[in-house]
Amino acid sequence: MKVLSCRRSESVAIVLFLAASILMLVVRNMDVLEFQPKVNSPIFTQRVSSDPDVNRSFCTFQPLSPQDALEERLILDSTAWPETPLLPGPISLEQTSDPAHSNFTILPGRRGGQWRVGDQLEVMIQTSDFKGRPKKSGGDFLLARLHNRMLEAGVAGQVVDHLNGSYSAVFSLLWEGDAQVEVMLVHPFEAISVLDRLTREQPDRIYFKSLFRSGSLSEATMCNVCLRPTQPLCNYTDLRTGDPWFCYKPKNLSCDARIQHIRGGYIQNLKAKEETLFQSRVNMKVSIRASGPSNVTVLPENGGQLKVKSNTVPSGPSGYYYQGLWRALSGTTVRQFNTSAITECLKGKVVHMYGDSTIRQWFEFLKATVPGLKEFDLHSSKQSGPLMVLDYANNILVTFRCHGPPLRFSNIPTREFRYIANELDGLVGGINSVVVIGIWSHLGTFPMAIYIRRLQSIRRAVVRLLDRAPGTLVVMRTANPKALTLYETITNSDWFSLQRDKVLRAVFKGMNVHLIDAWEMTLAHHLPHSLHPQPPIIKNMINHILSYICPQKAG
After folding, report:
1. pLDDT band (50, 70, 90) for residue 8
2. pTM of the complete model
3. Residues 483 and 357 in one domain
4. Is residue 133 domain-resident?
5. Does residue 273 lie within any of the structural domains?
6. What is the DSSP secondary-structure string of 111-177?
7. Last residue of one domain, picked from the residues 276, 299, 322
8. Residue 87: its pLDDT value, please?
9. Are residues 237 and 139 in the same domain?
10. Which of 34, 67, 224, 463 is most buried, with most CB under 10 Å away?
């Protein structure tokens, strides 16, 4: 009887255990399902799953197709920053790379210290900490360029991290004469680890608001791509693209009462001593000195006139400056367009520009440069658009509209929100249609997966557009380096921009889409870095776009 009783007890225990396990599984699945945005309902209460992988972030994502999910993983892996172990204990400034104690050395060329046009120049960079001790690990963010101010020549260098405190910078020698090497420390690895942590832990550090109104009743609540699950949300995830956007639900108004987007503010939540990692003129965008000569003399290729070969190095530069003019090393020949030539090139054309303020800068350049283009007042925000200029005599139309949220612009009517992919789906396209796209700056603080998915939806729309109207010209603008303060770094560091630059190139690789390499066009120029590059750089960018629209005729 005791044996039977024990067996019954064991059976009951097993049944109870199985029942409890099934109940836990059901609850867990309910949590995960609740965590996904319910696109068909404007309101939902977000819960955080007990799954540690889900708990790492309070950002929600739409499910991806297997193909897009694989691409996302491959892109994340290919653009991952080199892993370097951090020292135990709190971060100490004196243990990080110090540009004042670091140096670079020009290595002897294959001609024994003599260089000719078409050669490669290699520079070895050794980093040291603030006590002058050589670094033993890599992961620093360095930029390099070769330039000649007298010739107004410049080209970006390709930096290689050897993961042991040393780096190489390789330059293509593309002009005859003097060539000066410049190497810059943008961030030490420890600063990058802080930026990476902020993105994982505080993707909402830039926050936004929306104004809700119904009659005389109004209320403002916080909005973002990622919102912490503290109260019910209004879900404004786009039904067609799947791009996420949420606001906290107003207490006394419905989600449908949202009328205006407002830039909220910025939360700086650095740990003790982390600010020391982001100091201008100390360790952020500071030049590294040469241990010997910092320049070389480049001889003619064959003892004759300057002759430039097309780019045959896979990781080589996309172009370079000579006499202040950008010369592309692959693709179309960049022509120079004066005012009348711009009008002639755009005659009969419709140019649609979509993106952020760096695309609006191109729109404003054309408006100010071409006399025949007159603005048609749409009574819209001058920041976000929509904006339109017309030349009736020459049948030219140029438009601008900002991309969908997140947007760091204020006072935008929410009815004006448009996602680029949806706008592309509304275009007829054709041989007289030009589409210009640039989207990077406003998405810098969010998980990379959000940017990848945004680009994937734009790419699908580009494919549809080119399928129905193969003659449409599509031009993409890359990110560019900028001036950095502590605020600018935490919210939009060049490191964030570089990562997005890599992702954009990967997503649109192999497509019938033309690229304006704003990264190299800014880096190679002698003018200071700026979010909105200065007019000489913009003029070169516009000439590059126009050269795609009106390529040089053969013969």
Report:
1. very low
2. 0.87
3. yes
4. yes
5. no
6. TSS-EETT-EEEEEEE-BBTTSPBP-----EEEEEEEETTTTEEEEPEEEE-SSSEEEEEEE--SSE
7. 299
8. 64
9. no
10. 224
Q: What is the 3-class SS of 309-346, one letter each residue?
A: CCCCCCCCCCEEEECCEEEECCCCCCCCCCHHHHHHHH
Please give the Cα distance from 432 to 427 (Å, whole number). Answer: 12
Q: Do 414 and 346 share a domain, yes or no?
A: yes
Least confident range of 107-111, 242-246, 404-408, 425-429: 107-111
pLDDT of residue 394: 98
279 conformational bin, left if phi > 0, alpha if psi -120 to 50, beta if neither:
beta
Rounded to an integer, what distance in angstroms lies between the CA atom of residue 481 and that of residue 183?
A: 14
* Higher pLDDT, residue 80 or 185: 185
User: Does a structural domain hold residue 321?
Assistant: no
Task: Give the mean pLDDT of the chain.
Answer: 88
Considering the domain architecture, whether residues 221 and 122 belong to the same structural domain is answered as no
Q: The tokens 């243990």 sit on which residue?
A: 95
Q: Is residue 538 domain-resident? A: yes
Question: Which CATH number characterizes residue 131's domain?
Answer: 2.60.40.10
In angstroms, rounded to a whole number, what is the distance separating the alpha carbons of residues 474 and 480?
19
Let me know whether 227 and 178 are in one domain: no
Does residue 250 have a cis bond before it (omega within 30 degrees)?
Answer: no
What phi, psi does 357 have (nearest 5°)?
Answer: -70, -20
Per-residue pLDDT at 554: 67
Residue 239 sits in which domain range? 206-266
In this prediction, residue 354 carries a pLDDT of 98
Are the C-beta atoms of residues 186 and 144 closer than 8 Å to each other?
no
Shared-domain flag, residues 449 and 362: yes
Whether residues 357 and 402 share a domain: the answer is: yes
User: 189-232 pLDDT, tens per residue?
Assistant: 999 999 999 999 999 999 999 999 999 999 999 999 999 989 99
Q: What is the pLDDT of residue 208?
A: 96
Kindly report the CATH number assigned to the domain that includes residue 429: 3.40.50.1110
Rg for the chain (alpha carbons), in Å? 27
| Domains contained in the chain, number | 3
Mind giving me the DSSP string for 381-414? BTTTB-EEEEETTTTEEEEEEEPSSS---SSEEG
For 344-360, what is each residue's pLDDT tens digit? 999 999 999 999 999 99
